[in-house]
Amino acid sequence: MVLAGGSGLRFSAALPKQFHNLAGRPIVEYAIETMARNEGIDRIYVVYPEGYAELLGKVIAKYRHFKSIELVKGGSSRAASTRAALDAIGTVSRRKVLFHDAVRPFLTDEILERCITGLDAYDSVDTVVPAVDTVVKLDESLQCLDSIPNRAQLRRGQTPQGFWLDQLSQAYEGVDDEGLNRFTDDCGVLLSRFPDARIGAVAGGDDNIKITTPTDMFLAEQILFAGVGPQGHPVIDRIRYKAVAAVFGATSGLGLASAERLQELGWTVESASRANGVDVRDPAQVEAFLQGVHERHGRIDLVANFSGVLHVGKLVAMEQQKLEETLGVNLMGSINVSRAAHTHLSATKGHLVLISSSSYYRGRGDTAAYSASKAAVVNLTQALADEWAADGVTVSCIVPRRADTPMRRNAFPDEDQSGNLSPNAVADAIVDLHNRQQTGIIKHVY
Q1: Is the distance from CB of 278 to CB of 445 less than 8 angstroms?
Q2: Through-space distance between the first and last CA atoms of the chain, rounded to whole angstroms
Q3: Alpha-carbon distance 143 to 140, whole Å?
Q4: Structural domain boundaries, residue 334
């Protein structure tokens, strides 16, 4: 059961929060996909608020080939929505049933497995994580501390919560409509009817957050963009056909290593740089190169832009030409490559990879323009992930730390390169990102 029937009042938006986009997809879609692909789940019911059946219908249409998915109109409260879902199932039987909040997008197969197997030992299971803060209990006035419970015994509740269907149905039969409003979760309903029920605690995850406020949404974006949320599902078997990559800036360094790595995997790789007449600052040259690749091979599956320049010096003293080159190559070059790649990647449901730098999240002295341009590339990635999700195009960004490249050596000739990143690590990151096919990831490579 995916409980998506809430109105999201605390999110302070007209659209219920479960339908807001996270990296180009409605929040509710993440949990639905995880459940649809999980072998332990037989059937899915999605509870929706009035007026959103059509929107949800479009979401679940993508996953109905995995298993049966049904929509259920929700009630005025969480408990009322659960009752509606139970009514939709109909015949009460000894089956396992899980309830999950639609606004917890980072559900994992591991958590699902712990809930499903945990029911073999308990009447119910609750997904929990340790309470890291000290929790205090207030007195009846809600003004003063009454007690400080032992934190070792405290946990924070998450979802899914798991039940035996017949027992939970009996619990709900004993609660009238008015009484439903007292409960905020289904374990509470079960305990009200069966005080001696054994509810087992199964481990959740710190990333299994609930998106309730705009601040939670910001945190969810960072979890997803950092690549530590849902990782997508491997698609390496796509390389059974003749996959084609177009790599800009592949003359040396990160771009060359990545082009060579893709070729080792059997890809057809075509490289572009100023050395062979393609300047990413010129939209016409970029478009002509990609069109030529398409004409020669009939498709483009991956476009990666490694073109970049790094000029070192104080901003106020830097020559205008160097400033314009920095912004022109690093930022406008990324924009030009993205715009020209869109048509080709839309046709193949392909992948755009842009390259930033660890300087994007902390501007460093003597590289102000470079840091600013790389921060812009990260924002460009996030924006395009949202804009192009409906086209099936994956957009990712690689953020390497200091790397041992000719560009870095030229900029810092006296630097000890022994501790710098190998270009091969970035090449491996591209392969990893392409296998995930999760859009919007900002992949840090250390």
Answers
A1: no
A2: 39
A3: 8
A4: 236-445
242 and 348 in a common domain: yes
pLDDT band at 234 (very low <50, low <70, confident <90, very high): very low
What CA–CA distance (Å, rounded) separates 344 from 327? 25
Give the mean pLDDT of 48-72. 91
Q: What is the largest CA-CA distance in the chain?
A: 78
- Taking the C-alpha atoms of residue 83 and residue 92, their distance in angstroms, rounded to an integer, is 13
Percent of the chain with pLDDT over 70: 88
Q: Cα 247 vs. chain centroid, distance in angstroms?
A: 25
* Residue 165 binned pLDDT confidence (cut-offs 50, 70, 90): very high
Residue 248 β-bridge partners = 272, 305
Q: Are residues 254 and 205 in the same domain?
A: no
Res. 428 pLDDT band, cuts 50 70 90: confident
What whole-number percentage of the chain has pLDDT above 90?
Answer: 56
What pLDDT score was predicted for residue 241?
47
pLDDT of residue 265: 86
Q: Are the C-beta atoms of 395 and 368 separated by less than 8 Å?
A: no
* Pair of tokens at residue 334: 């990324």
Task: Say if 274 falls within a structural domain.
Answer: yes
Angle subtended by helix axes 368-388 and 320-327, to nearest 10: 20
The residues with which 352 forms a beta bridge, in sequence order, are 303, 395
Hey, which of 6-15, 184-193, 200-209 has the most confident mean pLDDT?
Answer: 200-209
Number of domain units in the chain: 2
Residue 229 included in any domain: no
